[in-house]
Amino acid sequence: MGRTVRDGLRLTAEQGQFVELAREFAAGEIRPRGRAVDEADVESPLDVWDKASALGLTSFMLPEKYGGGGVTDLLTQVLVQQELCHGDIGIGNLLTSNGFFGAPIEHLGTPEQQERFLSPLGTERPPLTAVAVTEPGSGSDAASIQTSARRSGDEYVLNGQKTWISNAPYAEMFVIFATVDPSLRSRGVTAFVVPRSAPGLTVGPPIRKMGQRAIVNAEVFLDDVRVPVEDRLGDEGQGFAGLMRTFDASRILIGAATTGLARAALDFATAYAAGRVQFGVPIIQHQAVAFRLADMATRVDTSHMLTVRAATLYDQGHAVAQESAMAKLVGSENAMWCTHAAVQTLGGYGYSRDYPVERWMRDAKLEEIEEGTSDIQRLVISRGLGAR
Known about the structure:
Helix content is about 50%, strand content about 15%. It has helices spanning about 15-30, 35-40, 45-55, 75-85, 90-95, 95-110, 110-120, 240-275, 285-315, 320-345, 355-365, 375-385; strands spanning about 130, 150, 155-165, 175-180, 190-195, 200-205, 215-230, 230-235, 275-280, 280. A hairpin with a 2-residue loop joins strand 9 and strand 10 (about 280).
């Protein structure tokens, strides 16, 4: 299991059971598959998805009334996410991706929509899903999306192109963000649930990536896709607020995922340093290596504590845009630092694909980019300073 963070949290018996389930699954099912999934490049490990689904690990974050595990507090979700991603961050993020799809439906959807769209996620064989925001010309500036949604009677007609859409090659349902009027920017953004079978919706070939290959990304094309009004989430123009609320939670979960990854790098580097002998002693006894490991441990704890704080404040109902951005910023940059430090500790072996740390370093880089780059997180934090 390696090192765990001593944070003083007192978990309920139910919380502890979910965390232990995730820890055991990560060690037994996720970690052993990491290398093969990476080398497969553009294939998600659907067999691992099925095993996790059977245990409730793909739907634990959904309310019980929709067939989920009822773990609706973000703090427990954070602890589970960290354990899954300690096994492998790409596979861990894949297994919890339906929570990202469900969030805007929970924030914006009517009770009828929530029942209709969330219940399939709690079944024995749940579908994979996707959220489509990013476009070729719109990344961090989500208010500038150009995919259009034109009202036509009791339907909307969607036209546009999305890119870097996680799970797109496998997804059976999409939450697609479009605009009813680009000149309105954020006030025009509207969300829709669109089935993969909708005429005019097509998915491009998989995008080859540096890391986190367990989640396959692709472009999504919308050519006069007709969506019933009853599949619009919220009113026109409410999509951007729902997306930002989704990001408040998902960025905290990224903080948890990257903490799990950084902890994995620390565990592996520590074990290696304890067994690798140079100049007559294990290299962990050399100050340069020992201090590097000490810095890794400190960064792991820092990431964990920021993430736990943000999740706790979120659960208490506070506005957490700043805290969420801090958790993602620090978690992602610390994971990048720790995985690089692990490679350095292993030396030549760290550069070898026979050891996991080079893969983990490639995996870490994504988290400094997705759902708002590190620069965007600093922008969010700085803009909120005057409001404190």
